[in-house]
Design brief:
By secondary structure, the chain is an alpha+beta fold. The chain has helices at 4-57, 61-72, 96-104, 149-200, 215-262, 269-300, 313-331, 349-366, 412-417, 424-434, and strands spanning 77-82, 87-90, 115-118, 126-135, 138-148, 305-307, 309-312, 334-338, 344-347, 372-379, 383-390, 438-443, 449-456, 463-465. The chain has 3 domains: 4-155, Beta-Lactamase; 215-297, Signal transduction histidine kinase, dimerisation/phosphotransfer (DHp) domain (Helix Hairpins); 305-465, Histidine kinase-like ATPase, C-terminal domain (Heat Shock Protein 90), CATH 3.30.565.10. Helices cover 56% and strands 18% of the residues. The structure holds adenosine-5'-triphosphate and magnesium ion (MG). Adenosine-5'-triphosphate binds next to α8 and α10. Residues 243-459 form the Histidine kinase domain.
């Protein structure tokens, strides 16, 4: 019924409440006891003083008897002595503890107002007071009053009993209240636990208290957002898987179909060669596709990081240009490069080479013979701009951002013929973002496309993670 947290919380609350109650009770008990003992000794002294006053008025046999007779009916004992402490009268049995107290009392210094001579009710049998009798300046004797401490103990026993019953009652009340208290605190947590379990099973979170204005409300809202993100990711993943399956199926169908055709008996050598060429081309496309999918999967991993180091951009561009130049020459497209000689940018050289290769490949594919493709870099205030501009047909205005989506191709049939997978720009974008940069496509007014990359000038710690 209770989660572990609520048990722990309950025990903690119980311990705290019990501790507080115990402290309060002990404090109350001690002060009550002191008060009661003071009260008894005060009473004792007042009675002793009254007897003494009576005796000072008339000190004779009948008054002495009168005092002892009066006290014999009470719980107290009165003992009257002469100035030397010899007992003259007593109202009850005199035992050794009582005589010892009288013997040890300092008779000479006793004040006329009387005083408590024994108050240690815990160790002694009696508490006692002394009221000296003085008549016309002469020290006549003493009125000693004794209260057996058993009276106090009895009274305290009664008090203790009451405390015990109140203690038990408050223990029961505490036990009764704690489950409510812990439930009050842990219920929203338990509800969120249930909701996240629903989420984990693929359901939708229901019953989250997102309206609360406290930390639990924050938590509930985070869970709600998490659930939406999870949904979006699930949908994206499904769409991506569907596209992957679709993209794989097309070349597979071609390969299968042409292989069947090539194996038909009586087919001409020329036709067989043509079919084999198609099969090879499709197999090549397939392996490119699989390779790029792997690449994307790697870029998607959370721990993917680009290793930034200072790179001379013109040298990097030279090595890329030497790779693509033969293809440009073959098609008859002019390739121009304009990069400041000494420009050094912090980037991952291998990854950035891959970016330039992709962009130049696209530019070449979409630029007709006789036109130009231009690679250039410009230094801005705190960034570096790298551009690949072509004079091709350009990208339609409303597709300028979607060309970076996975598998997106403006003209499906033409791209297929040119062997495009539609993953090139998606990979480029991931790499640039891993560098902490941005990429965007623009149409040139004169016709053609410009791909613009903005990179931080540097001052970074060297690595950039793509995840998060
Ligand atoms: N310079 C460009 N001019 C015109 N259209 C472009 C240009 N670059 C990209 N595109 C359009 O964007 C689409 C996506 O490009 P992307 O590089 O992602 O895929 P691809 O070139 O078709 O395939 P791959 O890069 O795998 O060979 C292309 O199919 C094309 O339609
Ligand atoms: Mg491409």
């Amino acid at each position: 019924m209770f989660s572990k947290l609520s048990i722990r919380l309950g025990l903690l609350l119980f311990a705290i409440l019990m501790m507080m109650e115990l402290l309060l009770y002990v404090g109350l008990y001690v002060s009550l006891v002191d008060e009661r003992v003071d009260e008894v000794s005060g009473q004792l002294l007042a009675r002793g003083n009254t007897h003494r006053d009576v005796l000072e008025d008339t000190y004779d046999e009948s008054t002495l008897s009168h005092v002892t007779v009066m006290e014999s009916a009470s719980d107290f004992i009165v003992v009257i002595t002469d100035a030397e402490g010899e007992i003259i009268r007593q109202s009850g049995p005199v035992d050794s503890a009582l005589t010892a107290t009288i013997r040890e009392a300092d008779r000479e210094s006793a004040p006329h107002a009387g005083r408590v001579i024994e108050s240690g009710w815990r160790k002694n049998k009696y508490i006692a007071t002394d009221s000296p009798i003085t008549i016309e300046g002469r020290h006549y004797g003493h009125v000693y009053m004794f209260a057996p401490t058993s009276i106090i103990r009895e009274m305290l026993g009664e008090l203790g009993g009451r405390f015990l019953s109140v203690g038990i009652l408050s223990l029961l009340l505490t036990l009764l209240v704690i489950p409510f208290l812990t439930r009050f605190i842990t219920r929203p947590l338990l509800r969120m636990k249930r909701v996240t379990e629903q989420l984990a099973r693929g359901g939708h979170p229901a019953g989250l208290d997102t309206g609360r204005q406290d930390e639990l409300g924050d938590l509930a809202r985070s869970i709600g957002k998490l659930s939406k993100d999870l949904d979006r990711m699930k949908n994206e993943r499904n769409a991506f898987l569907a596209s992957v399956a679709h993209e794989l199926r097309t070349p597979m169908t071609y390969i299968q179909g042409y292989a069947d055709l090539a194996m038909k008996p009586g087919i001409s050598g020329e036709a067989r060669e043509k079919y084999s060429a198609i099969i090879r081309e499709e197999a090549h496309h397939l392996s490119k596709l699989v390779g790029q999918l792997f690449e994307l999967a790697r870029l998607d991993q959370n721990d993917f990081a680009v290793r930034l180091s200072p790179v001379k951009l013109s040298a990097l561009a030279d090595s890329v240009l030497s790779l693509v130049r033969p293809a440009f020459e073959e098609k008859g497209v002019q390739l121009l490069c304009n990069i400041p000689e000494r420009l050094v940018v912090r980037l991952d050289a291998t990854r950035f080479q891959q970016v330039l290769l992709n962009l130049l490949d696209n530019a070449l594919k979409h630029t007709p013979a006789g036109k130009q493709v231009h690679l250039q870099a410009t230094v801005l205030k705190d960034s570096v701009k790298v551009e690949v501009a072509d004079e091709g047909e350009g990208i339609p205005e409303d597709e300028l951002s979607t060309v970076f989506d996975r598998f997106y191709r403006v003209d499906k049939s033409r791209s297929r013929k040119s062997g495009g997978t539609g993953l090139g720009l998606a990979i480029v974008k991931e790499i640039i973002e891993a560098h902490g940069g941005q990429i965007e496509a623009r149409r040139r007014p004169a016709g053609g496309t410009v791909m613009t990359i903005l990179l931080d000038k540097g001052g970074d710690d060297g690595t950039h993670s793509s995840g998060g």
